[in-house]
Design goal:
Length: 130
């Protein structure tokens, strides 16, 4: 009997997207970057861990720069010339990711901080008895 193999088709990406959005999530342990079009469809994504960094080196500004450089090259291949950057989180990759997008030759039209801030938040724990 013949063995059936399933061939996976890679989703085709629409070329010549002029304007894109970059979502940068900078945590204390990693930096995640997702590049989407105006509708929210992902064009490219990357993280410090996926770029080959492990352990404490994932949480460095250099790792974030490396991630953005890889994503910027795929963005340019797809025709992206200008981006909006949405930053989330307190990590060390925040500033270096913006500098890397600028150094890659992409025109930055917007930089927005979308870090969630609790307005009062959950109830605090009881005070410790001594």
């Amino acid at each position: 009997m013949a063995k059936l193999t399933k061939k996976s088709k890679k989703k085709t990406i629409e070329k010549n997207i002029n304007h894109a959005r970059a979502y940068v999530t900078a945590t204390f342990n990693n930096t995640l970057v997702t590049l989407t079009d105006q509708n929210g469809s992902t064009i490219a994504w990357g993280s410090a861990g996926a770029s080959g960094f492990k352990g404490a080196r994932k949480s460095t500004p250099f790792a974030a720069t490396t991630v953005v450089e890889k994503i910027a090259t795929t963005a340019k291949e797809n025709g992206v010339s200008s981006i909006e950057i949405y930053l989330k989180g307190p990590g060390p990759g925040r500033d270096s990711s913006i500098r890397a997008f600028k150094a890659a030759g992409l025109n930055i039209t917007l930089i927005a901080d979308v870090t969630p801030i609790p307005h009062n938040g959950p109830r605090a724990k009881k005070r410790r008895r001594t």
